[in-house]
Amino acid sequence: MKEIDLLVIGAGPAGLGAAIEAGRYGASVIIVDDQDKPGGQLFKQIHKFFGSKEHQASIRGFQIGQELLAEAGALGIEINLSTKVTGIFDDKIVSLITDDENVSSIKPRKIVLATGGAEKALTFPGWTLPGVITAGAAQTLCNIERVLPGKRIVMIGSGNVGLIVSYQLLQAGAEVAALIEAGNKIGGYAVHAAKIKRAGIPIIMGHTIISAKGKNQVEEIEIIALDKNWNHIPGSEKSFKADTICLAVGLNPDTRLARLAGCRMEYYPSLGGFLPLHDVNMESSINGIFVAGDLAGIEEANTALDEGRLAGISSAASLGYIKKELFPELRKEIWGRLGSLRDGSLGAKRLSAKRELIGEKEIHTDLSDSNTPDQPADYTLKDFQESPGFPSENRIKRGAVACIECAQEIPCNPCVDSCPSGAIIIKDSITKLPFLDQNRCTGCGLCLASCPGQAIFLLNYHYSDCKASVSFPYEYLPLPNPGETVMGVNRDGKPVAPVEIIKVDNRKRNDHTAIITVAVDKIFIHDIRSIKRGVRK
Amino acid sequence: MNRVTEHPILGSMETVKQVEITIDGKVITALEGETIAAALSANNIRIFRQTTRFKTFRKIFCGIGQCTDCIMIVDGKPNVRTCVTRVKAGMSVRTQIGRGEEIFHERD
Ligand SMILES: Cc1cc2nc3c(=O)[nH]c(=O)nc-3n(C[C@H](O)[C@H](O)[C@H](O)COP(=O)(O)OP(=O)(O)OC[C@H]3O[C@@H](n4cnc5c(N)ncnc54)[C@H](O)[C@@H]3O)c2cc1C
Ligand code: SF4
Ligand code: SF4
Ligand code: FES
Questions:
Q1: Could you report the per-residue pLDDT of B53-81, keeping only the tens digit for each?
Q2: Which pLDDT score is estimated for A278?
Q3: Is B4 inside any structural domain?
Q4: A495-534 burial string, b = 16+ CB within 10 Å, else e?
Q5: Cα(B48) to centroid(ligand 1), Å
Q6: How far, CA to CA in Å, does A511 sit from each of A46, A50, A127, A508, B83?
Q7: Between vectors from CA A490 to CA A44 and to CA A189, what angle results, nearest 5°?
Q8: Dist. CA A39–CA A45, nearest whole Å
Q9: What is the dihedral of CA A269, A272, A277, A278, to 10 degrees?
Q10: Residue B107 belongs to a domain
Q11: Domains and CATH numbers, chain A
């Protein structure tokens, strides 16, 4: 039987991170994955990532995936695809099945389990009709297979997955009829929600789906309003036409192998449910079996990657490839990065669950227990005007200036590095709101394309005697042409007034985020934030 | 066709070889390397199988091989997860009834 130092199960960001780190320090590593392409969920993620420079913020998910694969390749790490792990036995003997027919086994000295998560279902009358799919299926179809899952889609759930996949469906050319959220607050990042609102997609809060109707496939969806206690409000039913319903109602860790291996499980609702308990080294209750990524708690791709790196370093250290003195340093560095991703109000629950399950509070001592105030249900112009990224009216009247509409604390700071004048400042922790030093801002506009939230606009009050100009990021087809007159829309995607396209800047460094500048009547400088999307051929 | 030929981020779709497969005997065009589920979706085919007990229809659900809602009879073999199985020229795909008894309804 083949023997190796480390077997990594799952070639998503967590598994790739683990393999790369262990391989870097000299361990012999094999990765197996049951899919026929590596990357897990990462290659579906075509938007620019949040985080900071160390987390590769502002780079798109699939590009991070390509870099990881190149890195693994350079280290000579073997990735065995179409290979499913079917059993983990005593002495870490692992049984595999390749191409659904060839059975083999392998004996690694250590194992990293990085099996990811599974999307939750939601049941309602009609939920099994063809046309009800998970958001992940929609993302796979439109971004990997390049086939639209439907023509008129309703998204259920306003977490980041629901928001991002809605946006990506629009980018692929589908119509998103609405996004339905049962709660009274957006679950995901406000900047993601703002993108789809500007695109004119209604976000219907406080409603849930009661049925999908249709003969043999989805033709109509029925929703109902919920009261404070989440009870249906009779008489508030509404129906509309749709051929596809996407469920984005969360993920559970895929614990099948971890259970099989006998890892101790614990229930943490804020991390997606049952997950294998692990310590500060990502080691499970079973000696030599490490866990990372969505399996160890549903979070995001960059947390998965860093947890994977930690599991890789820990397994290499336990095999003697990393000096005893060096290991705590490396570990601390990764916990620091993980800490900054979990900082802020949206990460607070995950952070405290991780702390509790790891039982080592000192790891996070550099972070305060978040006491950030409640998020508003919706961000208005007033919220932005009161935030530190908004220039004063006097400054706006003096000439071109950036206008940062990022008023929710999220772990993100690429805007800071993008500004050649040092006019954007985020102090202490990357979750703090960006501050605009308005006297330093030269109005160059370089920050717009770097912001993964598409939350920065450029306002030029003095474009001409009667017009101001507004620049905004735009990632849809068709791109408008300079000289054209199109409809300018507000933050809710509602028409405000016709605008003239002055410039479409799609240079390479923008990485497909076109920056569009439009001339608007001066009175609309605080209203117009995008244009009505054109019709695709 | 529901293909995303142009994309603001991913660019134009690469030209890949077209292959022919059959669905319940009817010939459709697929793209080499795509999954059966993608090929059927691109051809507006939404019914993949019929359940054993309640005789209701199913299509893909999870899209990544976890749920088995998309199983069909492929080259005579039942219970093939079409969302993770790639097309091959000349492949025969059939709507699956129940656990794999052949279905002979012809598609129009
Ligand atoms: C639809 C969807 C959208 C998402 N969008 C985002 C996003 O936009 N941004 C973001 O940051 N995060 C997003 N996420 C979160 C996502 O879970 C993480 O981005 C990340 O992919 C998790 O990494 P992972 O390595 O833990 O798991 P995965 O990327 O899921 O990788 C796990 C791998 O393990 C393999 N595997 C499982 N069991 C076995 C077995 N028995 N044998 C062999 N291989 C096995 C799986 O096939 C898979 O390839 C999204 C998740 C989903 C489902
Ligand atoms: S517009 Fe230019 S100077 Fe002003 S904040 Fe943005 S990058 Fe900095
Ligand atoms: S403004 Fe800065 S902190 Fe806010 S989303 Fe954009 S890049 Fe991130
Ligand atoms: S759709 Fe779930 S296995 Fe294919």
A1: 888 999 999 999 999 999 999 999 999 99
A2: 96
A3: no
A4: ebeebbbbebbeeeebbbbbbbbbbbbeebbbbbbbbbbe
A5: 25
A6: 11, 15, 39, 5, 30
A7: 40
A8: 10
A9: -120
A10: no
A11: 2-117+252-360 (3.50.50.60), 121-249 (3.50.50.60), 381-531 (no CATH)
The structure tokens listed for A78 are 């073997």
pLDDT at res. A374? 62
Task: Tell me if A57 CB under 6 Å of ligand 3.
Answer: no
User: Secondary structure of A107-165 in the HEC alphabet?
Assistant: EEEEEEECCCEEECCCCCCCCCCCCEEEHHHHHHHHHHHCECCCCEEEEECCCHHHHHH
Residue B6 lies in a domain: no
Distance to chain A for B1, nearest Cα, Å:
9
The model's pLDDT over A102-146, given as tens digits with 9 standing for 90+, comes to 999 999 999 999 999 999 999 999 999 999 999 999 999 999 999
Domain range for B86 is 18-100
CATH assignment at residue B94: 3.10.20.440
* B5–chain A Cβ distance below 8 A for any pair: yes
Closest Cα in chain A, distance from residue B52 (Å): 14
What is the rounded average pLDDT for all residues in chain B? 92
Residue B12 in domain: no
Task: Please identify which residue in the block is written with the tokens 């996949």.
Answer: A165
Span B3-21, pLDDT tens digits: 999 999 999 999 999 999 9
With a cut of 50, say whether residue A302 has pLDDT above it. yes
* Ligand 4 pocket test, candidate residues B66, B80, B86, most atoms within 8 A of CB: B66
Facing B8 at nearest CB: one of A147, A150, A475: A475
Structural domain count, chain B? 1
Using a CB–CB cutoff of 8 Å, tell me whether B34 touches chain A. yes
